[in-house]
Amino acid sequence: VESNTMISRRLQRFGEFGSTCYSSSSSRDPSLKYDFLPAEAKDKKVIMDVALNHFIFTAPHCVALGITRNSVKELIDSVVSKSLHDPYCYTIIYKESGETIGFRLMSVAHRDKSKDFEPFELDIRKCEENVQILASIVSTLKEQIWDLRPEANKILRREVTFVRRDHQRRGIAQHLLHLGLDLDRLRTDGFDGVQSEATSIANQTLLAKNGYRMMASAPRKSYIRQDGQPIKFPDATKCAQLYYLSLRK
């Protein structure tokens, strides 16, 4: 567990990103019980642990597809490593126990993919069918944005936002939505907008309530296995959807 001094230094280091940020519209203030710390490369292990021990057993797409730790570990490693390359990620620490109970991962995407940071080469074709389906659904939505926003050359992507089940419904996701994002600075740095491939009904509802526009949905045929069996969700989620918040004035 980090000391208060260490936490303070980390917040000061990244404080410039919070000067004109969006704040939670919720009457609840989760910062009273939780620390929201800018994530760095050294936080990769704890983020991976939360993702592999909690996220994949909670996220509707992962549950519906029967994703396992071993099958998805390399894909999650890729997403976490890519996201931690840029200063837009957070971990969530429950003050009472010092546990990391969630995270927000964001990455930078360019129309010119040669400018994107890729931590290592990942061959999805070698993964299990369930992981291939998940990766195909998400990656297809990701790439659609360049056709839907032909004027955009650089976008900030919400990769994964996760809060452990026993800490949900406390205003944390709302608080995290734009935490630490200086929208004027993002515009100056050439970002056209913020993109999210929302894979749960809860996330889709959150984004829609906060000014994000639903741009596209994964087609139903994406949710049919090779043997013809449909993929069934454990909740009201119907499909992954692409949401976008334009930063253009």
TrEMBL record:
Question: GO MF annotations for this entry?
Answer: N-acetyltransferase activity
Q: Which SUPFAM superfamilies match?
A: Acyl-CoA N-acyltransferases (Nat)
What InterPro entries does its record include? Answer: Acyl_CoA_acyltransferase
Q: Where are the transmembrane segments?
A: none
Gene3D superfamilies for this protein: 3.40.630.30
Task: Report which superkingdom the organism of origin falls in.
Answer: Eukaryota
Q: From the Swiss-Prot or TrEMBL record, give the protein name.
A: N-acetyltransferase domain-containing protein
Q: To which species is this protein native? A: Pristionchus entomophagus
